Amino acid sequence: MPRFGLAWLLVGLLGLALGGCMQATLAPSSDASLTPRDRQLLAHAPYAQTTIPETFRRHLVDYSRREAPGTILVDTDARFLYLVLPGGKAIRYGVAVGEEAMAFSGVASVGRMAEWPDWIPTPEIQARLGPYPPRIPGGPANPLGARALYLYAGNKDTLYRIHGTNQPEYIGQAISSGCIRMTNEDVIDLFDRVKPGATVVVLAPNQHA
Fold first, then answer.
1. Residue 9: inside a domain, yes or no?
2. Is there a catalytic annotation at residue 179?
3. 44, 59, 179, 208: the active-site residue
4. Would you list the DSSP string of 180-195?
5. Are 7 and 13 in contact (CB under 8 A)?
6. Are 187 and 145 spatial neighbours (Cβ–Cβ below 8 Å)?
7. What is the pLDDT of residues 117-150, one digit of tens each?
8. What global pTM score does this model have?
9. Is residue 20 part of a domain?
10. Residues 43 and 139: beta-carbon distance below 8 Å
11. Does 22 map to a domain?
């Protein structure tokens, strides 16, 4: 096995071992339900498609934590996002998370949801990574990708998002500027299952699921 492939396999096995309460991987989850607009935009995405390692693909899994159905839980160390389902199950998605000292952790709620959202770079992002235009229209070249779930604490926007990406090769890594990235197909699937106001629990580093 190539060294790169072996490294991904070891990362995946480590993630499963650390997520001790998440036992059996039961089956791949169904394909995302893409709209005609989704298919049109993703058919001409200006980035190379990549093969996501099997560990970080969307799966139905056992789930033994106590979060209520409809809750989103993010295990930042294992690079997994869980959508809790009834009956002790969850859909597990692979994600990219924020670099150390930049990621959100704690409890929030989904305050707003948007399809193919515009991106307005924050002053901090402009200073650190810019310059960018003040607003970047939604589309496959937009860093927010196909969907965005805006995380709020109370009535205040935390400025953190769960969103798609135009860099799917980074799924499974800690690479983002604090937000939680998913493949566009996975964030579409999550978006279709989540309701506004849903609770989002983001575990801090070393606080495993």
1. no
2. yes
3. 179
4. EE--HHHHHHHHHH--
5. no
6. yes
7. 998 877 877 787 767 887 889 999 899 999 999 9
8. 0.84
9. no
10. no
11. no
